[in-house]
Amino acid sequence: MPFPDLTHPALGAYRSSVEMPGDFASFWSDTLAQSRAAGGKVEMVPAETSLKLIEAFDVTFPGFDGQPVKGWLLLPKAREGKLPLVVQFIGYGGGRSFPHELLHWAASGYAYFRMDTRGQGSGWSMGATSDPVGTTPSIPGVMTKGVLDKNDYYYRRLFTDGVRAVDMLLDQDFVDAERVAVCGGSQGGGIALAVAGIDRRVKAVMPDVPFLCDYPRAVRTAGRDPYLEIVRFLAQHRDKSAQVFETLRYFDGVNFARQSNAAALFSVALMDDICPPSTVYGAYQAFAGSDKTIVEYEFNNHEGGGPFQDREQMKWLGKRFGMA
User: Fold this and answer.
1) 58 lies in a domain?
2) Predicted pLDDT of residue 111
3) Where does 44-126 have alpha helices with state H?
4) Where are the beta strands (DSSP E) in the chain?
5) Does 1 reside within a domain?
6) Over 294-314, what HEC string results?
7) Which segments constitute the Acetyl xylan esterase domain (predicted)?
8) Strand order in 43-46's β-sheet?
9) Is 302 part of the annotated catalytic residue set?
């Protein structure tokens, strides 16, 4: 297939035109304050597995508005002192899956948490978290759920879940608060950028082929869903384009990147027709932290680097967290 987007040198020179809303910071601080005030109960129950060297826990914690969110927590059984933490978020349509599929971070000495994704988890792996909040008319999928009002938009709830997961984990005595990383691929990378942009306690972020970045360009450039959900919505709601893109500014990875001082390891696939590479570069070039790196996979589509990028992450984070 041909390259679907910009190539170098135009790709490396690309800068996003997304503008930061004037009340961006207050919108997110108010959102988090409301959800933290809602309270909720944390439960950690040993998971039923055959694992002998890893402890696995089925976790429920309060997310947006105190609503229950699930996740798996994995810890190395042989551990001393506080552990560095990796929180992973999941790609579009996926769920938390099974603990035995999620071993490489815990097996490398990290505390590892995989947060479930509310209202998804049936597209390619199983989830266990509902989204109890209703929505105005929308296209199937979540990209347009509540998109006419920033207070109702689906990703307000999901990004808040991500920060509340960090809240919950930093309350645990086995976590080193100075070594907190977030990561994820596609939608998970977009969530990771949002959490790192909202929460200064995050010291490292590793977004792989991140989704939810540079919406205006993505919607006009992507060749496949999920961005095309927004296209189909606007094809019917012809008078709502300005309103939709105004909402999306509050959830754009470019704006979260502008807020983060964490260390960052991005990846991009130059043949990606789901998350166009220019949108990934839009977030990367906007990223405020000085310690940032991007790894390119020239001949890959949205699968990106796969296990090659996993290996890059292990080495990169290990150096920064003293685990190399």
Assistant:
1) yes
2) 98
3) 104-107
4) 43-46, 54-62, 68-76, 83-89, 111-115, 175-185, 204-208, 263-269, 292-297
5) no
6) EEEECCCCCCCCCHHHHHHHH
7) 1-318
8) 43-46, 54-62, 68-76, 111-115, 83-89, 175-185, 204-208, 263-269, 292-297
9) yes
Which domain covers residue 66, as residue numbers? 10-319
Residue 186 falls in the annotated catalytic set: yes
3-state secondary structure (DSSP) of residue 52: coil
pLDDT tens digits, residue range 155-197? 999 999 999 999 999 999 999 999 999 999 999 999 999 999 9
pLDDT band at 1 (very low <50, low <70, confident <90, very high): low
List the Cα angle 80/82/88 in 5-degree steps.
115
Give me the CATH number covering residue 251: 3.40.50.1820
Q: Average pLDDT, whole number, for the chain?
A: 97
| Token pair recorded at residue 269 | 């696939």
**Is 154 known as a binding-site position?**
no
Report whether pLDDT(124) > 90: no
Question: Can you give the length of the chain in residues?
Answer: 324
pLDDT score recorded for residue 324: 79
Pairing of strands 43-46, 54-62: antiparallel
Q: How many domains does the chain fold into?
A: 1
272 is an active site residue: yes
Tokens of 226: 């999920």
Query: What are the two backbone dihedrals, phi and then psi, of residue 236, each rounded to the nearest 5 degrees?
Result: -95, -45
Supply the pLDDT for residue 314: 98
Q: What is the rounded distance in angstroms from the CA atom of residue 136 to the CA atom of residue 260?
A: 32
Q: Which helix (H) or strand (E) holds 166?
A: helix 154-170
| Residue 136: inside a domain | yes
Any domain includes 302:
yes
Encode pLDDT of 260-302 as tens digits.
999 999 999 999 999 999 999 999 999 999 999 999 999 999 9
Q: In sequence order, which residues have a C-beta less than 8 Å from that of residue 319 and are 6 or more positions away?
A: none
Mean pLDDT value of segment 143-160 = 98
| Identified catalytic residue from 186, 260, 267, 278 | 186
